[in-house]
Amino acid sequence: MLGFIFTDAAVAPEFLQRALSAANGRSFSCITVDGDTSTSDTVLAFATGKAGNAPLVDDGSDGADAFRAALADLCHQLALLVVRDGEGATKLIEIRVEGAESDRSAHRIAMSIANSPLVKTAIAGEDANWGRVVMAVGKAGEPAERDRLSIRFGETLVAKDGLAVEGYDEAPVAAHLKGQEIAVGVDLGLGEGVATVWTCDLTHGYISINADYRS
Q1: 210 is known to lie in a ligand binding site
Q2: Using one digit for the tens of pLDDT, what is the confidence trace for 151-183?
Q3: What CATH number should be reported for the domain whose range is 2-84?
Q4: Where does substrate bind (predicted)?
Q5: pLDDT less than 50: residues of the chain
Q6: Would you list the domain boundaries of the chain?
Q7: Rounded distance, CA 73 to CA 67, Å?
Q8: How does 47-71 read in b/e, with b if 16+ C-beta sit within 10 Å?
Q9: Is 14 part of any known ligand binding site?
């Protein structure tokens, strides 16, 4: 992954670095296609200063908030394009973890779910197999208690306090999984930690593309 961002705004290097690091932490660092990375994975930002504005030097500068927001939005859009373009991908999957002991813990759990081949293939097959989500939570190595765990697909709660929601309507879940944008929600019930990450499904197309690939 190579990302190059250019702005004609005048921005001090230190402030630009802080703004990019913050934006990256909520975008490129929150996506995964297959869990693998590259030695060339890079995101760079350049400010030419051609706009002639008063330089943005810190958060107190006029326009600093707007610049940070615009940069964060751009990084978010670009990061989702990477996931949408994953090899063989047919679905964009958003995974939101709440109720973790910390944001860091929530992020690790969310990435464990996002990188699980079993979760990704279940969604490719449009199967709301929430047991696979539980498995991915457990293998993350972060604090979690089965009896406090809740899971949803789309807006439908399918598991609460570690057990299937009795009598939940499967129809909206099935309809949601047939779409191209899938939402999976996990509530650990332990604390205030939250994180959102994005991934794609794992299909036969991934195998075909990577089995035939040769550099």
Answers
A1: yes
A2: 999 999 999 999 999 988 889 999 999 999 999
A3: 3.30.2330.10
A4: 87, 210, 215
A5: none
A6: 2-84, 92-209
A7: 10
A8: beeeeeeeebeeeebeebeebbeeb
A9: no
